[in-house]
Amino acid sequence: MTRAQDIAAHLTEVRQQVADAATRAGRSAESVRLVAVSKKMPAEDVRAALAAGQLDFGENYAQELRDKRAVFESAGAVTGALPRWHYIGPLQRNKVKFLAGQVALIHSVADVDILEEIDRRAEAAGADQDCLVQVNVAGEAQKSGAAVAAVPGLLDAFARSRRARCVGLMLIPPFDADQEQTRRHFATLRALRDREGAVARPRVALHELSMGMSGDFAAAITEGATLVRVGTAIFGARVTG
Q1: What distance in Å separates the CA atoms of residue 95 and residue 81, rounded to the nearest whole number?
Q2: 3-class state of residue 161 by DSSP
Q3: What DSSP assignment string belongs to 73-125?
Q4: Which of 28, 63, 134, 164 stands 20 to 30 A from 241 (CA)?
Q5: Which residues contact 81 (CB under 8 A, 6 or more apart)?
Q6: Model-level pTM?
Q7: What are the structural domains, with CATH classification, of the chain?
């Protein structure tokens, strides 16, 4: 089996698992979008997944995303298909220039400073930029994300934006072998989304929940995930170094 065939087979398996989890939760498979996490994987792997029908790809490093995007845009006229890029990693202010107005969705807005830079860069590019607020539900010091108490103020800042829009919330839960513990974090994010989504704000419409990765996406779907970020189950172990 070639590498491309292997990726296509894994994609088929993951898609079925996503559909099965959605069915068990009483939802349609179409209500959950799979984001194939391609960080540290070569452009050839993205191309193989794209050929197998995968459109959404997640990257953790702004410059790596920029470089992969350039590869596909230079070949876009030939292939006729372009990835829909998601930025899912921690975001520094000096990296926003590689993303704002250039990607489908930024999942990891964690503070007003980053939001303002996204808004400024998107306006300069003449494009709207959809974003998610990353929430550090468990308050882990080593992880990015806004504290739960800070989320309303950050959403208020989105309401004052010119080009940035918030379309949902994102979570990376603490690692826990107990899936029920992880599921509680997903449920907390959903409840926060529902509560803040009931507040009318310009440029804020919280219809997305980005939560769940290779090891726990079924639990996330049960709790309402609309975007699941899966890398290892599709591409295998990542290149290191």
Answers
A1: 26
A2: coil
A3: HHHHHHH----EEEE-S---GGGGGGTTTTSSEEEEE-SHHHHHHHHHHHHHH
A4: 134
A5: 50, 55
A6: 0.95
A7: 3-228 (3.20.20.10)
